Amino acid sequence: MSKRLIWQLCGALVIIMVILTFTPVITPKGVAEPFLLGMPYTLWSGIILSFVLLGLTIIGSLVHPGRDHKDQ
Amino acid sequence: MVKTLIIVGTIYVGILAFFTLSTRTTEKDSASYFMAGSNLGSLLGLFTFAATLFSTFTLLGMPDFFRVHGVGAWIFLAVSDIVMVFGLLWIGHYLRKKTQGHQYLGMAGFMQRCFQSRLAGIVAFAGAFIFLIPYVAIQIRGVSFFLQQAFENSPPLWVYAICIVAIMLIYSEIGGLKAIIYSDVLQGIVLLVVIWIIGFLCLQEVGGIKEMFTQISEQNEALLSTPGPKGLFDFQFLFGSMVAICMIPFTQPQVSTRLIIMKDTRALFRTAIGLGSFAILVILPTVFLGMYGAIKYPDATTPEFLGNTLIHDQPGVLGAFVIIGLVAAAISTADSQIFSLGGETRSLLKGEDKEMVKIARLAIGLFALLALGFAILSSDELVLLARASFAGTSLLAPMIFTGIFYDNSAKIRLLPILTLIAIVTLVCANLGLISTSLGGIRLDLILLGALSIYAVVAIQVDKLSS
Questions:
Q1: Looking at CA atoms only, how far is residue B227 from chain A in angstroms?
Q2: Looking at residue B177, what is its pLDDT?
Q3: Which distant-in-sequence residues (6+ apart) come within 8 Å of B218 by Cβ?
Q4: Partner residue facing B71 (CB), from A42, A56, A61
């Protein structure tokens, strides 16, 4: 798989994650359950989402088409 | 606590003085004074980005936001910040590429060049000016108000505000952006350490994470989900906030300048990853502070809650560090914003460089005075005022992105004018002269959407016609 394709895939996944953020998958109205480690659903799923997005950013930074661009 | 405060405060001011004097140059040209030599490594980059972005609004505003509106505040800021960091990789690279080969001194000058129109530069400057001055002011006011509440027989708020502005002006005027960047490292570390210690202590006090949320569910269950007890975190608020926050690196000059002055693209990418990690690290303890407040001080006013949670409930020594941490957080954001407005002014000026730098430095003093005046008069709604600032500057995004991505942006002449109209409209809405929503949709979203659609359509039409 080429670096450019992985970069595009990262971008697409970030967009999907953003869309999910505003759906009941991450922010169900008035729903606190299920709890994980004592935390309500929106908080722990939001924290996991943040780490997934950060992971995608790390991968994206390694395969970004402009990574080896020489600044003048 | 007062004795500790004096010792810690003296050390803090001493370190600031050291940074200022060691970065001081007698020859002040635009490249060194406003752009710090444009050779910023990833570690310095991380701390200066972090200290500039995470401010009083994070340390004071976010705990209160969690306390009043619940866990949706995580989506509002943390998730939005990480998406912003990804955007930094994506668009930041193009912005840097576009500015290469030309002297970049500010977004206003860059827009003037892209659109070959002075109006475009003035609109970029006006947008930053109108929405950043209130933002700077709330940083100063937030901390001043907090300090006033923290001490018995305290001097009035304006005394604290003047002291903060004076410290900020002295080191930024003498040392320029380099002094600000070095002091950001100190301020970023202080902010992170202080917020974690208090967060940890608050968490211990309420018996750990599980016990904390069990108590909350018994007291006010609506805090455990969106949209929260007051219904703030609905789709429009969260989506609008995310869009506005994602635009910050390009629409707020204090951040875009840092993006440009990074040593190379790899350094920028490393900084972006560090910034994402920093965002999670700095926002997580504010959840504990907020939930602690929701259990202990559910009906207290914001100053009562913050004064008790951050100072009175903490050991005396820690209270002193909190105060220094708060002052550091306010100064690190406010100085960068005021200084960047000076840079924007410089980017619009034409003439002999040293003379123009002098004029821009005078402008920095003027902006600081305006912010001071506003700080003394403004309201205490820290987070909501900050969000209004993000939303306001985000209206510049369609124009700025057109400048970055479209080589013939000079042909899209109407865009700067429409951007100006949108800014004026949003200011009128914020002043209560017109409605803040239309057909149930937030006005900032409508304006941003309309400008974006116009920019896309105008570019396509221009491409077809040429």
A1: 6
A2: 86
A3: none
A4: A42
What's the N-to-C CA distance of chain B in angstroms?
Answer: 70
Q: Find residue B226's DSSP bridge partners.
A: A29
- Complex ipTM: 0.95
Nearest chain A residue (CA) to B221: A32
Segment B178-189 mean pLDDT: 86
Please list the residue range(s) of chain B that carry CATH number 1.20.1730.10. Answer: 2-392
List the beta bridge partners of residue A36. Answer: A39
Report pLDDT digits (tens) over A8-35: 999 999 999 999 999 999 999 999 999 9
- The contacts of residue B428 (CB under 8 Å, 6+ apart) are B434
Quick: pLDDT tens for B89-145: 989 988 988 888 888 889 999 999 999 999 999 999 999 998 888 888 888 888 888
Contact residues of A toward B, CB < 8 A:
10-11, 14, 18, 21-22, 26-32, 35, 37-43, 46-47, 49-51, 53-54, 56-58, 60-61, 64, 66-72
Superfamily, domain B2-392: Sodium/glucose cotransporter (1.20.1730.10)
